[in-house]
């Protein structure tokens, strides 16, 4: 089975290196960076809370990350394990990480990537995406990818948890990274600072990660908790007002067509050196894999007969994501909703590359956004059921309409709606993706967006012998992020006539 790695340039506890000192304020050229996990993946969902870093000084990070330090960040020694025997070039034939038949990106390379057209200021998606610089827990200069996410605060950047927190070599517990500086639309090939950082550097003030992300077990590379938020410091205008933001989409993964963006590569390495923003088009499916049962809490193992991963992750085999792209956005093609954040993928050199992202679910993203953006309204779903204005003739049919609305800052994917009928009625037809029994329909709305209502209609046959008004109930399921679930259920009474 191919090994999997965290797609970040970061210090991990399991590497065989001397213990690292506490974080210092110099960038070195000998930092330790990502490699392959030596054992089976570990999955834990024991926590649903969030932890925050100590307050930081945004101005210090802005001044610290000079162009010279940016160029020196993430310049690693050879610490990434080589591919397995049989996966390298054979008889002069170069192995492609993504076979040509699976590459969907126009003009892509062997890994499925293509360069984003310059200048990055021209398009909203490339403006909102940027490079995140930081000093990791081992004291080395590092970088990931990140993007601005829609929030009430207008100051939040989303990335992977292993980009904000890790366990230094030789340590028993994780430490927060320091001196975060987000550079939207970063262009490492530009001649001037103004062109390289067209919207400036935005220093981090605080970071959040789910409690379930520990930084242990190879960086929790197979964890649904590998997602984080960073609040940037204030300027004359907010970050969101300056470059825009992606709308987060609450989901548990699933099948989508996505565009991913970011800054893969490290200086001096091939095929990417981190100076270019790249993109890749991919089709996702629920991520597959196994967990190491012996490492899971007993409470999680109770009643489990297998070791399949819980939902919350997406993978694509159309893009082979490289180091430095960790934390990059996965966007629904067409709507540009942020459906995932890059977390992991196979190590470089395998002939069948992949990439894995964490979905923005209530357990991971929800836990951190509640703390990072307490005034924001997320996942506020409601449903309203309407009946015919006139009484329904007994023995005839009637149509009821359920309207689902979403208020706030977040979109929602695969939204469940149920319709329940009383005795004396039969469900004969429904609109949309519904599975129905005679007295009940279970529907799934592909996506609901703020200020864009979605309607589900149902045709109901009324028996000839009914008398009393008939109560029809509609319900939409939301998450714990919904500030009030009182409007998640709606009921009407069908009046009848002979």
TrEMBL record:
Record keywords: Signal
Amino acid composition bias (Polar residues), ranges on this chain: 481-491
SUPFAM superfamilies the record matches: Trypsin-like serine proteases
GO molecular function: serine-type endopeptidase activity
Signal peptide: 1-25
InterPro entries: Glutamyl_endopeptidase (IPR050966), OmcB-like_DUF11 (IPR001434), Peptidase_S1_PA (IPR009003), Peptidase_S1_PA_chymotrypsin (IPR043504), TRYPSIN_HIS (IPR018114)
Highest taxon listed in the record's lineage: Bacteria
Listed Gene3D superfamilies: Trypsin-like serine proteases
Pfam families: DUF11 (PF01345), Trypsin_2 (PF13365)
Chain ranges of the DUF11 domain: 381-493
GO biological process: proteolysis
Low complexity bias locations: 24-37, 71-83
Disordered, as annotated region: 24-57, 69-113, 479-498
Claim: Hydrolase is one of the keywords in the record: no
Keyword set includes Signal: yes
Protein name: DUF11 domain-containing protein
Organism, scientific name: Nonomuraea longispora
């Amino acid at each position: 089975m191919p090994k999997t790695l965290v797609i970040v340039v970061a210090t991990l506890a399991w590497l065989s290196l001397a213990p690292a000192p506490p974080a210092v304020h110099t960038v070195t050229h000998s930092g330790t960076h990502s490699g392959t996990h030596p054992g089976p993946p570990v999955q834990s969902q024991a926590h649903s809370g969030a932890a925050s870093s100590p307050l930081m000084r945004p101005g210090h990070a802005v001044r610290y990350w000079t162009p010279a330090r940016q160029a020196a960040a993430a310049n690693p020694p050879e610490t990434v394990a080589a591919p397995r025997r049989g996966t390298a070039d054979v008889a002069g034939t170069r192995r492609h990480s993504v076979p040509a038949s699976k590459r969907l990106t126009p003009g892509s390379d062997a890994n499925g990537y293509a360069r984003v057209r310059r200048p990055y200021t021209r398009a909203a998606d490339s403006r909102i995406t940027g490079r995140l610089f930081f000093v990791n827990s081992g004291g080395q200069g590092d970088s990931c990818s990140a993007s601005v996410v829609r929030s009430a605060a207008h100051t939040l950047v989303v990335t992977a948890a292993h980009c904000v927190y890790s366990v230094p070599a030789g340590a028993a517990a994780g430490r927060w990274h320091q001196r975060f500086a987000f550079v939207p639309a970063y262009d490492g090939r530009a001649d001037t600072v103004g062109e390289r950082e067209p919207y400036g550097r935005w220093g981090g003030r605080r970071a959040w990660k789910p409690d379930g992300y520990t930084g242990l077990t190879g960086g929790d590379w197979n964890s649904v908790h590998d997602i984080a938020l960073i609040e940037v410091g204030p300027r004359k205008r907010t970050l969101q007002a300056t470059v825009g933001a992606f709308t987060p989409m609450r989901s548990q993964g699933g099948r989508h067509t996505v565009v991913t963006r970011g800054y893969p590569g490290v200086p001096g390495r091939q095929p990417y050196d981190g100076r270019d923003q790249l993109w890749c088009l991919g089709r996702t499916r629920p991520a597959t894999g196994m967990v190491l049962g012996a490492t899971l809490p007993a409470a999680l193992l109770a009643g489990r007969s297998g070791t399949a991963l819980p939902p919350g992750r997406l993978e694509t085999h159309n893009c082979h994501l490289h180091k430095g792209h960790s934390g990059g956005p996965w966007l629904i093609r067409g709507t540009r909703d942020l459906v995932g954040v890059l977390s992991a993928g196979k190590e470089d050199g395998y002939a069948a590359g992949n990439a894995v992202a964490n979905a923005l679910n209530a357990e991971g993203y929800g836990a951190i956004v509640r703390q990072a953006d307490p005034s924001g309204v997320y996942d506020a779903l409601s449903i309203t059921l309407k009946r015919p204005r006139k009484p329904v003739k007994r023995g005839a049919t009637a149509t009821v309409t359920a309207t689902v609305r979403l208020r706030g800052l977040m979109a929602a994917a695969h939204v469940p709606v149920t319709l329940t009928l009383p005795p004396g009625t039969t469900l004969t037809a429904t609109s949309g993706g519904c599975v129905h029994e005679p007295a009940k329909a279970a529907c799934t709305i592909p996506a609901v967006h703020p200020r864009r209502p979605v309607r589900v209609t149902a045709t109901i046959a009324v028996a000839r012998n009914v008398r009393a008004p008939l109560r029809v109930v509609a319900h939409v399921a939301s998450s714990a992020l919904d500030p009030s679930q009182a409007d998640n259920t709606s009921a009407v009474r069908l009046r009848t006539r002979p």
